[in-house]
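Q: I have 613 residues here and want to know how they pack in 3D. Can you give me a structure?
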Amino acid sequence: MQGTATVQFGASAPVFNGTNTDTIFVSANEALIDWAINSPTGEFLPEGMTLRFNADTGTPFTVLNRVTDTATTGPLSISGTVSSDPLGRIWFYNAGGWVVGSKGVFNVGSLILTSLPITVDPATSGGTRLYGDKNEIRFGSALDPKSSVSIQSGAQINATLFNSSYVALVAPRVDQAGTIKVNGSAAFVAAEAATLTINNGLFDIVVDSGSADDTGVSHTGSTTWAANSSSTDSNHGVYLVAVPKNQAMTAIVSGRMGYDSATTAAVVDGSVVLSAGYNVASGRVDPNAVVGDDASLAISNLTIGSKGFATSLLGSASGGIAIDATTASTVVNGSAAFDARGDLSATIDNDRSISVEGDLSLTSANGAKAGNVAVSVAGDGGLFVSGGLSLASTATGAIQTDPSNGDALLPDSLGDDAVAGNVSLTVTNGSVFATSTSLLSDATSGLGALSTGSATSGSAKIVVSAPAGSTSNSVSFGDLTISSAASHGFFSRQQPVSGGNATSGEVSLSVSGGLIRPVHSRFIRMRSPIPLATSRHLMPLRAQYPSVFPISRRGSRPVRSTCRTMPRPAMAALSRSATCHCRWTMPMQGPRLSPTTALSSVPSLSDRVLTAI
């Protein structure tokens, strides 16, 4: 060791074995040790040295190590080995932060590395000093707002000795490029002050002060838990929480998270939670606790879980979310849901892919204003979803009720205008597979006593194109719904004095090039307030490709009788307030097309089937 230890309570002074190991004997459930070192190079535990924590308590024990270096104010390095008994919870604090070098190894029960001071209460009779009244760990304000915790490539952190273990890295900047294995949960928190509570493996993470760093958290390494009979914790999880102070922040997410390679089926599914700008409550993003604006997620080259052992991925951002699969693929062995207040995008190219073993949803929602949602597949890339694919931009204005009278609207209040973004799926010489596909742009205006706000939804478009006669890629949307809807909020007890406008966007499906390959038992729904185009626009397609555009057509009330008469020479326009729910049903058995039939001769459906006004 590079320094001296002063035991404040709960342990003995380190015992050196004469070669390379310092051993600390812990005699209580909690211990506090202050370390003073003088290392110009910032070494706390050099390579080849071991720091060992032993206890004879027979119960879980916590040791807080507070380390100061009189020679430097920057991060301290750990390149040796730290070990403990299986029930040991080992915490390290240094105001300048920590660097775990490529040779650094931890074999402990649980671990905290932080640059935020951990609160220690005064001594009381039989009471805890390291935890709060609700078993929370209290991280005070960072003395150095530029401090960080960094796990370098090659470093190993193993907290696998006991169930319900945890690893937490807490600092204004957190970099995880090493290998972490935990038999419970891991948390990476970018903040200048925070509170963590761990209940049965679930984290509550409250950020009291955000970080001024532009990235906050960068995860490029591996954070996993073993899928074997000794890993039976019911709440496995990885939590990435990045909260900005007053600036834009984009957390970087790649590498591997979730279940490691499985060795037995006696395991419980887990989850990965990515939170940019939000607190975490009971292991989930708290949507009502936005604590940092303009926090985004940049996701690439990410693997979640292992085949056959589902790990759900939940990503939320107060800014935007960008998924990049142009240089490396992303795989989620479970369902994935992304929610942002800003724009969402997924870009796939250069023979790379995004694969999800479950449902995949991308949703933008931020009260009365929502961002755009765009997915692009090109260059022989692929989007493969074993469940349903959902893209949505949803804007909902508030209904302003009177706080003193829930049966009335707030006097003199005005309804919010609601504006939803555009939703698009563009496939250019690429492949897409999903059991169902839904594109939705939806705006619902707010209500006030004086007025209803306006509602404007964006466009909802699918564009598929490939070289004529191409067979290298395929597209299968399953049951397909494309919808753009604009409407007003409703309050049954009182109507506003004046109304507002509602305008929906364009709805289109465009296909060109490639080959038609009919599929069975599929249907298409396209919805939008219209006048509906005349049926003659579909007649040439039905005549040439009867198995692709069959005759069955149905509509939902209140316009069922009008919508179901296909084919007629012409169809009367529907009223502006009506919504037509159109459906084409693929026959279970239908005429097969020649494998050489090219789609280049099929007119685009864009603006010809349903056009919004």
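Q: Anything worth noting?
A: The chain is about 0% helix and 50% strand. The first helix runs from residue 539 to 544.
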